[in-house]
Amino acid sequence: MTMASAPPTAAAGLGSAAPAVRRTRRDWRGWAFVGPFMIVFLAVLVAPVVYALYLTLFRQQLVGGNAFVGLENYVALFQDAKFWESLGRVALFLVVQVPIMLTLSLVAALAIDSARLHGASFFRIAIFLPYAVPGVVAALIWGFIYGNQFGLSGSINDLIGFDLLQPFSADWILASIGNIVTWEFMGYNMLIFYAALKVIPTELYEAAEIDGAGQFRIVTGIKIPSLRGSIVIATIFSIIGSFQLFNEPNLLKNLAPNVISSFFTPNMYAYNLSFAGQQFNYSATVAIVMGVITAVIAYIVQVRGSRQEVR
Fold first, then answer.
1. What is the CB-side half-sphere exposure of residue 247 using CA atoms within 13 A?
2. Distance between CA atoms of 55 and 129, rounded to whole angstroms?
3. Coil, strand, or helix at residue 66?
4. I need a surface site. Which of 114, 258, 264, 288 has the fewest CB within 10 A?
5. In degrees, to the nearest 5, what angle opens at C-alpha 259 toward C-alphas 253 and 261?
6. Per DSSP, what are the bridge partners of residue 68?
7. Are the C-beta atoms of residues 102 and 238 closer than 8 Å to each other?
8. Residue 94 in contact with residue 266, Cβ under 8 Å?
């Protein structure tokens, strides 16, 4: 009687040599292209932010010099009435000026894109041209126009016999600055919207015309929904610009010293704390807090805009 041989098992192959694992060397050539940008990025953005955060943890004292105080600068800032007044002012500026500017930019872009506006190229260049004017020059130009003694406003008041136009009064100064900012950046936002309108497929227009849709329906049903992403981008840029408001009020301060204070905006407050008051640590605290507030609000707008675009 013979015994049956055992069936082969998988264990029989364990004795064979395992295939050698190839080790690939990491390719660093990509960093040769990214490296110069990263060096500049770290030097001009990351390093200043880190240094500003470092400054906020110290305070210059009469006795002991620059002493570590932890979060005391932040506590003092949140109790600072001047900071909250300046923040409320730019928040009001944002809520009123940004919607007006973006609405005017949207209307201008739709009008130029409609192909029914005669001289569309001229209007496109004319609306965008103020953006090419430096902000300092624009503020000086409008400061001369607003002048009660020597400008256009003063001439109109002299003509009618009473002070009708008072751009530098406390009630109108924020609106006057808003007018300058709108004049400067309306063309920039118009160009963003106009560029987005030009990439809309023409097939959508043809299908809408076949269905009998009029121009108003095409605008509300095709053009404006296609601009949601561009509107979100323009809104984020405008929010950042509003919280960074500095050039216009700082230059007009000499023309309206009793109306525009040294803490008219948070950026002006930080600037005067640093260069006039030599309070570098507290100035850095204002800058860091405003940076965080701006980033949070811009992020919220971006997230909400992205959700609506997905829907």
1. 15
2. 41
3. strand
4. 258
5. 65
6. 58
7. yes
8. no
Decide: helix, strand or coil at residue 65. Answer: strand
Which residues are CB-neighbours of 187 under 8 A, at least 6 positions away?
105, 127, 128, 129, 130, 131
67 beta partners: 59
Helix axes 47-56, 280-310, angle to 10 degrees: 120
Helices 81-113 & 280-310 angle (0-180, nearest 10):
40
Query: Structure tokens of 268?
Result: 């002006």
H/E run at residue 58: strand 58-61
Per-residue pLDDT of the chain (311 residues; tens, 9 = 90+): 444 555 555 444 544 555 555 667 777 888 888 889 999 999 999 999 999 999 999 988 776 678 888 899 999 999 999 999 999 999 999 999 999 999 999 999 999 998 778 888 899 999 999 999 998 999 999 999 998 877 888 888 888 888 888 899 999 999 999 999 999 999 999 999 999 999 998 888 888 888 888 888 888 889 999 999 999 999 999 999 999 999 999 999 988 888 999 999 999 999 999 998 889 999 999 999 999 999 999 999 999 887 766 56
Would you call 44 exposed, middle or buried from its count of C-beta atoms within 10 A (0-12, 13-18, 19+)?
A: exposed
User: Which pTM value belongs to this model?
Assistant: 0.84
* Cα dihedral: 178, 181, 183, 186 (round 10): -110
